[in-house]
Amino acid sequence: MHLVLAAALNPGGIIAWIVIGLVAGWLAGVVMPGKGYGLIGDLVLGLVGALLGGFIVGLLAPDATFGFWGSLLVALIGSCILVAILHAVTGRRAL
């Protein structure tokens, strides 16, 4: 099964995807306003956000490859989008 997001997040396999997602989650917790969701929550959001970012970029540029740093940026953007959506849905306020 070939996923659309494979083109956007292809820095070297599933282990690299997990590492990138974890780093992106931590960065999103630092960058986004508010308290965050705790270390574990931020890391999980990073993993899901990396998939979201990869899916979005895969739709916009299906044949694009970004390497490690580009994949990290895509994952960070996806994580920030996910955090913003969660803040809007749950009503969390920026502190």
TrEMBL record:
Residues spanning the membrane: 12-32, 39-60, 66-89
UniProt keyword annotation of Transmembrane present: yes
Pfam families, sorted: Transgly_assoc (PF04226)
Topology in membrane: Multi-pass membrane protein
Primary location group: membrane
Record's keyword terms, sorted: Cell membrane, Membrane, Transmembrane, Transmembrane helix
Magnesium among keywords: no
GO annotations of cellular component type: plasma membrane
UniProt signal peptide: none
Domain of life: Bacteria
Listed InterPro entries: Transgly_assoc
Localisation per UniProt entry: Cell membrane
Family classification: Belongs to the UPF0410 family.
Name listed for the protein in its UniProt record: Transglycosylase-associated protein
